[in-house]
Amino acid sequence: MADPCILAFDLGTSGLKAAVVSLDGTIVDREVVPLPLMLLPHGGAEQRPLDWWQAMVDASRALWARRVAKPADVVGIGSSSQWGGTVACDRQGVPLRNALIWMDSRGADDVKTLVGGTPSVDGYGVLKAMTWLRKTGGIPSLSGKDPVGHIAFLKRTERKTYDDAALLLEPKDWVNLKLTGRAAASFDSITLHWSTDNRVATAVAYDDALLKLSGLDRAKLPELIPQASVVGPLTSAAAEALGLSTSVKVVSGAADMHMAAIGAGTVDDFQGHLCLGTSSWLLAHVPFKKSDLVHNMASLPAAIPGRYLFCNEQESAAGGLQHVVEKLLGRTGPEAYTEAFASAATAPAGSAGLTYLPWLHGERTPVDDRLVRGGFAGLSLAHERSHLVRSVLEGVALNGRWLLTHLEKNLGRALPDVTVVGGGARSPLWCQIHADVFGRPIRQVRDPQLANARGAAFQAMVGLGLRGWHELSALVPIDRVFEPDASQAPLWADRFTQFLAEFKHRQTISRRHRLEEH
């Protein structure tokens, strides 16, 4: 074999990315296939799993057709995927309905029933909460957006689908079933079912008491395997569809945020990375298990065996920018974003008092509220298009500062810098805005939109014995470091205080939305 390489898939919400990655970390070639998203009444959000699979097939075929990468050189497959979704399927992986994805909150009322009790704190029965926190490190989200909420929703509203389902799988684990014929979840991907004892990071296992609390049937859940495990070789059907050999081995893969942490090169403890994708997060590996229930953050099993990742998520980042550019400004295509960023660069820092509130689909952290809604605050007749777009970039960064505040408190230390990945990280302007708002240097990874795919390839390399974890950071090139402008610190301190006040105001106003939804 001339140049062994990994085929990596990154299954996102808006599209699937495929990349061929050599053992030195070079991205040999890449392909992107857009994916449809169905937003439904009362918080529904669904996608078709077979669309995911067709995108994988189409992306692979496109890669081989260009002849830049050779299918004969592929020795392994690794996958990164959206996290917190549910695919109800038969034993062979045939879906019985659309997948409920991480944005779907229709099970919120069901979760409130599951987690409630007396005495109660913030909607959680104290004894139940203590059990979940002690064993898992976290607790089901009251938003209903975890698989626990999805499954409870199916049991209540689509009982036949639930009864007929042989398996209830995370998106990543469904993909691996399609690839190998084996239904298996890794220690990290199963976490949001809140039914595994995570106290020993190397021995995660289903727990009968937690299964009962979560209302889950063990018979419908996959077997558990360690992170970076080989799930199996490609089936003949999968190999033929992807244009590969049945000798290609599939490694377990992980959720998007876990893979971004690896693809950013932040594999050591207390190295922070920020993702600017459809959603956003600010995470770091840690050597301990810890929970912050008040701010919906916790250290959970990482994609690296024996390690934890301190997790959080901001619901709308680049997804909010897309909404504003395409829905409010009426522009589409790559040139629309080039023009939007160019326009934003002409506006002053602070957007002349205009503040964007990025809670377009509720929020998860640092406040778990599925119904809070965002918008623009301080809009006046003096504001122009440039102010509007720049305020979106700044609003996402202010929400990121909110995450940073609570992440650092939980880590017990300040992050010296933050590595940024995701499609939004391609913008130098957005990187600089984050540096100024955070007051931290921002390290821009090369090809930041492919960080998840790179991470999936890296994990596959380690799982196949081709690389060691200690080698990965050196394989991730940093294109540029953006230093914060100290002269702007007073401005952002003031705007951050205003931002937090706006959130409290919006929570109050959004009570009306709660009534409308029900």
Any key phrases for this structure?
alpha+beta; Nucleotidyltransferase, domain 5; 2 domains; eight-stranded mixed β-sheet; seven-stranded mixed β-sheet; 21% strand
Topology:
Elements: E1 5-11, E2 15-22, E3 27-34, E4 38-40, E5 44-47, H1 49-66, E6 74-81, E7 87-89, E8 99-100, H2 108-115, E9 120-121, E10 124-125, H3 126-136, H4 147-157, H5 159-164, E11 167-169, H6 171-180, E12 184-186, E13 196-197, E14 205-206, H7 208-214, E15 223-225, E16 230-233, H8 236-242, E17 249-251, E18 254-255, H9 256-263, E19 272-276, E20 280-286, E21 291-292, E22 297-301, E23 308-311, H10 318-328, H11 334-344, E24 355-357, E25 375-377, H12 385-411, E26 418-421, H13 428-438, E27 442-445, H14 451-463, E28 478-482, H15 489-509, H16 511-517
Parallel strand pairs: 1-6, 6-17, 6-18, 12-15, 19-26, 26-27
Antiparallel strand pairs: 1-2, 2-3, 4-5, 5-8, 7-11, 9-10, 13-14, 16-17, 19-20, 20-23, 21-22, 22-23, 24-25, 27-28
Helix pairs in contact: 2-4, 9-14, 10-12, 11-12, 12-13, 12-15
CATH architectural label of the largest domain: 2-Layer Sandwich
- Report strand order across the widest sheet: 21-22-23-20-19-26-27-28
CATH topology of the largest domain: Nucleotidyltransferase, domain 5
Percent helix, as a range, is 25-40%
How big a fraction of the residues is strand? 15-25%
Number of domains: 2
> What general outline do the C-alpha atoms trace?
globular
What about the largest sheet?
8 strands, mixed
Mean of the pLDDT scores? 95
How far apart are the termini? 60 Å
Name of the CATH class of the largest domain: Alpha Beta
Which consecutive residue ranges, at least 5 long each, have pLDDT under 50? Answer: none
Q: Report the structural category.
A: alpha+beta
